[in-house]
Amino acid sequence: MTTVGIDAVEIWTGKLKLDLPETFAPAQGDDPEKYTKGLGLEASSFPDTYEDIVTMGANAAKRLMDRKGLVPDDIGRIDVATESAFDNSKPVSTYVAGCLEQVYDGDFHHANKGERKFACVSGTQSIDDAYNWIAAGRSRGRAALVIATDTALYARDSSGEATQGAGAVAMLIDEEPDLVALSHEQGYGSADETDFLKPQQQFPSVDGKRSMQVYLARMREALQDFEGQDTTHPDDFAYVPFHTPFPGMVRKAGLLGYRRIVRNTDLESEIAEEIGRQPREEAYEDREAYEEAIQTHMDELKQTDQYRSWYDATIEPTLSISRQVGNWYTGSVHVARVSALQAAAEAGRGLSGERLLVASYGSGAQAEIHAETVQDGWKEEIEALTIDEQLRRRYDLDFEEYEHVHDAHNHDLDTEIEAFTQPSGEFVHAGWGRMNERTYEYVE
Ligand code: CAA
């Protein structure tokens, strides 16, 4: 079978920025280091008043189509992954197609469109759908456009407020991709959980601490499921991009992952000389005693040179964009992949043929793990991105402005405020139509 994967990617960040240590922490009466050191975050991206999930998604998609020289006829499906949808019937992908049809000759009437929901993992699930559509021979030579777009806003003064973010990632899924090829193998960890949900409400109900435990438990299951099918030796992967609600979460996931993937390897023997072999459940009388032993072992493992150098080389580079933007829900793991590839490009590292282990997660809850092989065109793709410039150009909100913009995006409030930035060469939310639908226009 021909290879299928991500041919191109584009990122669009919300135009506003909330500085967490400088602006948010003092207003909350928090120590700034809770954000920078604890959560691992410097700033959150926010949508300006004329931005929403449709504009950010359509703007990322347009940039991708322009760069790859695509027209609507080249695209056979458009799937949007989001947990910020504002309509229970009409999918966001139809709005995105409507936007794109304003600026391209031709239309997307031939394209299958949909919206995927499973919290943050739905971005990866949409890539899967596209992969399966192409692999099944149904694409008629066309590519799939997958857009992960979210305004990850939490209720004011809730614990999640520290981890907000807004942005979109557009990805082109095609045969013979330029960026990464997807593995056939996948591992899953999936269970009915109620840790983070939005039952007909805009802002999530979250049990924050429990959501972290559920993330780790499902991730462990997915890794175990994947191990049965493919290698997971740490030396086999250049980077391991995780779903990143905030970098501090990935610190925990990285340690858990490392412990599992060194089991029964040469590395475990090497580490054992220093801190002993990791505990095996069968050697303990009950689960509690085993868990206590594991915790002690993890605390020691975290300090070893082997773990620290693996983390610095394999995980740390995946976190650089996330630190500046916060959680983008469905887009977050795809931002982590881009961060890693950017770091490799900046370091002049040759990456063609190397593998990534990609760990996606969605609350509710499901983790998915697959491998990707970096393709020859990766560097050109990554160097074409403008994300660094976009981040630099964000408008830096003061706390009062942040409060207003949060209110302006709150569906239950009727707050009119002036935009902070001037749109140029992009889609904007222009108003409301006769059936209360959102309307969009392209601003030159
Ligand atoms: N200096 C250094 N570190 C500090 C510090 C300081 N002054 N103050 C606090 N910290 C550390 C804490 O020790 C903690 O680190 P550890 O977990 O390693 O101990 C970290 O900073 C955060 O501090 P708190 O636990 O006190 O923070 P909190 O009570 O405000 O809640 C949170 C943190 C639960 C993550 C909350 O932000 C939240 O609910 N977020 C939304 C839910 C979420 O993102 N869950 C993640 C898993 S679910 C998922 O991944 C899906 C998704 O996208 C939502």
* CATH C-level class: Alpha Beta
The name of the CATH superfamily reads Thiolase/Chalcone synthase
Radius of gyration: 22 Å
CATH topology (level 3) name: Peroxisomal Thiolase, Chain A, domain 1
The protein's oligomeric status is single chain
Associated small molecules: acetoacetyl-coenzyme A
The whole-number mean of residue pLDDT values reads 97
Percent of residues in helical segments?
25-40%
Shape: globular
| Tally of separate helices | 15
Instruction: Label the CATH architecture.
Output: 3-Layer(aba) Sandwich
SS-derived structural category: alpha+beta
Strand order of the largest sheet: 5-4-6-7-1-8-12-11
Summarize the helices and strands and which ones pair or pack:
Layout: E1 4-13, E2 16-19, H1 20-28, H2 32-39, E3 43-46, H3 53-68, E4 75-81, H4 92-103, E5 112-116, H5 122-135, E6 143-152, E7 165-175, E8 180-190, E9 196-197, E10 205-206, H6 208-227, H7 247-262, H8 266-275, H9 287-301, H10 305-315, H11 320-325, H12 332-346, E11 355-362, E12 366-374, H13 378-383, H14 387-392, E13 395-396, H15 399-409, E14 426-432, E15 438-443
Helix pairs in contact: 1-2, 3-4, 6-7
Bound molecules: acetoacetyl-coenzyme A.
